Amino acid sequence: MAFGQAAGPPASAAQITELAELLARAGFDGFREARHPYGLTQRQSNGKFTRGEADELIGRLTDELDEGPEPPAADPTASVTAAESAEPPPSDVTLAFPDELLADELRRRGWTCTPPRG
User: Which parts of this chain are annotated as the region Disordered (predicted)?
Assistant: First the structure.
């Protein structure tokens, strides 16, 4: 097998279409955006899969999407507790959302998030 070549027959057009649809349902615009969250190779991020790779990713995506909707996130406009009211009001819209919600969204998009020390 030559360098950079896939080990197996290429995925069918139907498999690639199904993958694209599942990734769209998961909130991604395409294979490249989903590369890091799903651990895709550079070849796969260009839409080139073997049949086995496509079947495996279809299974993963189907399992994730079939688990049901995620629990609703905390409402950023909900009433504030007394301890939180002592904090100054946020100067940016993104500060109104819970840290965990923002970190989860960044991780979904392939970023790494670590809490501050202190």
Answer: 62-95
Number of H helices, E strands in the chain: 6, 0
| Structure tokens, 19 | 């993958």
Distance CA 36, CA 23 (A): 13
- Alpha helix stretches (DSSP H) within 1-118: 13-25, 35-38, 42-45, 51-66, 82-85, 99-108
| Tens-place pLDDT, residues 11-31 | 999 999 999 999 999 999 999
Q: Answer yes or no: pTM beyond 0.85.
A: no
Question: How far, in Å, are 40, 50, 91 from residue 11 at the CA level?
Answer: 15, 5, 49
* Distance separating alpha carbons of residues 31 and 110, to the nearest angstrom: 13
